[in-house]
Specification:
The two termini are 39 Å apart. This protein folds into 2 domains: 9-225, Rossmann fold, CATH 3.40.50.300; 232-337, Magnesium chelatase subunit I, C-Terminal domain (Helicase, Ruva Protein, domain 3). It has helices spanning 9-26, 31-43, 57-68, 84-87, 125-137, 171-174, 189-197, 204-209, 221-231, 236-250, 264-267, 274-290, 298-309, 317-320, 323-337, and strands spanning 46-50, 71-76, 88-92, 98-102, 112-118, 139-142, 145-148, 153-158, 177-182, 268-270, 314-315. With 341 residues, it is an alpha/beta fold. It is built from 15 helices and 11 strands.
Length: 341
């Protein structure tokens, strides 16, 4: 386990590798997702998860929370959920007297490290606004004081199947997520058979118990994240490559990106934000570090470009309804057409 005096990035890389191995004890077939979650942890960024029901999102996050240590909380998004439900809840106790107890955000205060908001698009915009404040500032005002959550990482899941009683997440809130990750059912027939027939995967609590706790102690991650960002270098040519990609998100046609049946001059309403591009580089530095490099290379940016950028590109209304059919080709086109050093 890392200690305060353990400042070596090489040593912490060993802990990061072990963390991924531990998570894979409980979650199989999602190695790529686990790697990107590890990137987000060391980049100290929040994550949006997308996937159908029953693909293992909750198991994955419980495994991540155990590997990090600290407190884990989960809340289910419902249309009647109110902002205050995140902060406190009221009830009548056995003596018939009203009581107020801390809600999931306040219950553990500074020890809260992993917060999972399931089906976040089922809640009203007022809840989105509070969540945005918590994500952006890692703090909240309640009971005439301000509470801070310095180690908090928010994971949210968006229901992409049902559309009734859902509310689209505003662009300002989506821009606060470092990445959006798709979680799919594994395609490997051996893994599918294992998930269905191996009794080991039927008892989730026992599965989580197999993970060694606090492999990456959450109290030290902010310090190590800062060290990664200061030590992993970006060359001038690499910086120019990132700037060209940023320009391409605003005007892909200028870089020769074409999509059949799409007017490229009318496609983009808004490209990536400066915050989004800085988060891309933040994630790329972590990827370089995990690969044992002292400097970012184009492949590190390409590795996370889709996950950090796709949700930050907004199409004109005539194309927005076809987003799922356009976005993959658009991102691939930018990576293919923007010259890498």
């Amino acid at each position: 386990m890392p200690h305060d005096q353990d400042n070596s990035l090489a040593d912490w890389k060993l802990h990061a590798d072990r963390f991924q191995q531990e998570i894979q004890k409980a979650v199989v077939g999602l190695e790529d997702t686990i790697n990107l979650i590890t990137v987000a942890i060391f980049a100290r960024g929040h994550l949006m998860l997308e996937g159908d029901v029953g693909v293992g999102k909750t198991v994955l996050l419980r495994a991540v929370a155990r590997g990090l240590g600290g407190a884990y909380e989960r809340i289910e998004g419902t249309i009647d959920l109110m902002p205050n439900d995140l902060i406190y809840h009221t009830y009548i106790n056995q003596e018939g007297k009203p009581r107020i107890d801390p809600g999931p955000i306040l219950k553990h205060q500074e020890k809260l490290s992993t917060f999972f908001f399931n089906e976040v698009n089922r809640v009203r915009p007022q809840v989105h606004s509070l969540l945005l404040r918590i994500m952006a500032e890692r703090s909240v005002n309640a009971f005439n004081r301000e509470y801070h959550f310095p180690y908090l990482q928010v994971f949210a899941d968006r229901n992409r199947v049902e559309k009734e009683e859902t509310f689209e997440i505003p662009s300002a809130a989506r821009d606060r997520f470092l990445m959006e990750l798709r979680i799919e059912i594994p395609t490997d027939p051996i893994i599918r058979k294992q998930l269905i027939f191996d009794p080991r995967f039927h008892d989730v609590d026992q599965l989580i118990e197999e993970i060694h706790p606090e492999v990456l102690p959450y109290q030290h991650l902010n310090r190590i994240a800062q060290l990664i960002q200061s030590e992993i270098q970006t060359s001038n040519t690499l910086q120019q490559y990132a700037l060209d990609l940023w320009k391409a998100t605003h005007d892909p046609g200028k870089y020769g990106v074409t999509i059949e049946g799409i007017n490229m001059d009318q496609l983009i309403l808004s490209g990536a934000s400066s915050r989004g591009m800085s988060l891309l580089i933040r994630a790329a530095r972590v990827i370089a570090w995990l690969q044992g490099r002292a400097a970012v290379v184009p492949e590190d940016i390409q590795r996370c470009f889709y996950q950090t950028t796709a949700h930050r590109l907004f199409f004109n209304p005539s194309y927005e309804l076809r987003r799922s059919m356009i976005i993959d080709d658009l991102i691939e086109g930018m990576l293919n057409q923007v010259a890498a050093p």
